[in-house]
Each structure stands twice: as C-alpha cells, then as structure tokens.
Amino acid sequence: MSGSAARRDKRPDRAPEVLRCLFEEHRHLSALVRVLEEKAGQARALDLGDYYLLHDIVGYLHDYPDQVHHPTENLLFEKLVRRVPAARARVDRLLRDHEAVAAETLELLQLLDEAIQDLDSASEPDIRQACKRFARHQSDHMRRENRDVFPLAIDALARSDWRSIERHFAAVEDPLFGRVVGKEHRLLYEYLANPVDKASEQLAFAGLLSQERLVMMADVLGQGVTSWWSRLGALGGELSAEARSELDALRSDPGVISAAGLPVRYGQFLGKALIGCSADLLGICTGAARETLALYGSRRFFG
Predict the structure, then answer these.
(1) For the residues 168-175, what does the mean pLDDT come to?
(2) Would you list the domain boundaries of the chain?
(3) 10-193: CATH topology
(4) By the 8 A CB rule, do 20 and 148 touch?
(5) Per residue in 95-120, pLDDT tens?
(6) Cα–Cα distance between 230 and 210 in angstroms, integer?
(7) d(CA 51, CA 258)
(8) Nearest-5° angle of CA 112, CA 113, CA 118?
(9) Cα separation of 189 and 299, whole Å?
C-alpha cells in the first residue's frame, strides 16, 4: 500500500458522523445552559413553574449527556491518547470534568426536588447560584472539548477508531433532540420549540389544552381514580373480613367476647380503618395534584 493510500485508510475524508453528532449535541446543551442562566438571572422571584422547568432541564442532562454523551466522549478520549500520548494532560482534565459535572448534576437535582416539594422553604439564592455555577462549568467544559480535543481527534484517529465509537454512540437515541421525543421530556421539548413571554401568556394557556397534554392529563387522572376506587374496595374487604372474624370468634368461644361487646370492638376497628383509608386517599389526591402541577409547570405559563 502506498503512503497516500495508507493515509486515506487512517484518516476519514471529512469529519466523522459521530463527531458531527457530538458537536450538534454541544449546540443543544448550550441552548439548555442558556435557559438555566436566564432563569437564574431573572429579576422576578422564581416560582413553582420555574423550578419545574429547571428540574426538567437538569433531569435531561442527567438522563442523556451524563449517561450517553460523556461516555461516548470518554471512549474518544481513550482512543485519542493511544494515538497521541502527548494529549494525556488535557484528556485527564476533561475526564475529571465529566465526573465533577455528574456529581454536580445530582446535587442540583436534589436542590430542585426540595424546592418543588416545599416551595416555602426553598433557598432561592442557593438555587440561583448553583444554576449559574453549573451553567458556567458546562460551557467551559464544552468549549475546551471543541477547541482542544475534537480537532486533534479528526487528525489523529483512524477509521477503525471512529467505527468503534460510532457503534457505542448509535446504541442509544437522544430522548429530547432525537427522532422520537421521550414522554418524560415531551413538555421540555414543547417549551424549547415554542417559547412564550409574558405578553403571550393567554396563548400559552391555550397551549395547555393541546391534544397531547389532554392525553397526558387523562393518564394522570385515570391512574388517580383507579387508585382511589382500588383503596375504597380494599376498605370494604377489610371491613367484611373483620366482621366475619369477630362473628367466628363469638361463635367459637362466646366467653371471649359478648354479643353486646361485638359492636363496640367492631366500631373501634371501623374508626381506625376509616382514618387509615382517609390518609391513603389524601395521599392519592396529593400525588395526582403534584403530577398535574408537573405537567403545567414545565411551561412558562407560571413564569
């Protein structure tokens, strides 16, 4: 094989598909980072809708970039160091970034979870600072990858390297920016595709009644109603079983409980059962309401 033929075998004629996808994902991530910065820097106070939106964004960053995008880059880094040992220092820094960003993502998710669960106790300044810090780290990290590593990989990696990386990358579809939007990220996708401002809140309200949202709301309410009736049915079963148990005890050993005392014991059980059932039903209603707020809160309707 001639020298020119060997070079053609080693280097792709253009930027490999997987690398173009990584660049494209950096553009997507940059758009999400900008939303984090905008929300963290807005003049008005953060409200429940803002917290849900921030949680959706950080949740996606945990679900896809931390689980797929970064591992793909790690594989690229590994192959790059084999081809260019001198790149070890900059690669090691990026690998440390991936670990730090993953930990920071989980910490921010926990802060947002706490804010959503108890809005009154939310430490808004801490969340604003955490979002700004998170956004800055993400932007700096992607800038170093785009500038210091990806161009070097184009020059250094062989076709076989890129084929290996592409096999890993193609195994998982992006649930937000891919061909099919995942159900858990659908409202975030709608927010990004159709941003609204305060002047168009009435249109945003109309958007809440989209067919897709009605279907999702029906799912939430349907599950709540099913759980409600299931719990009431269980209560009926408990009352019937206890009544049979008390009557059987009376028949088998009248000395244990008198006929006159039976209603008292049964009444005590009934009271405890009703209290327990009421607490369960309240929990079902609270859960359905929380999921309903989550559907609404992922848009700027609250903002």
Answers:
(1) 72
(2) 10-193, 211-302
(3) Four Helix Bundle (Hemerythrin (Met), subunit A) (1.20.120)
(4) no
(5) 999 999 999 999 999 999 988 888 76
(6) 30
(7) 59
(8) 100
(9) 10
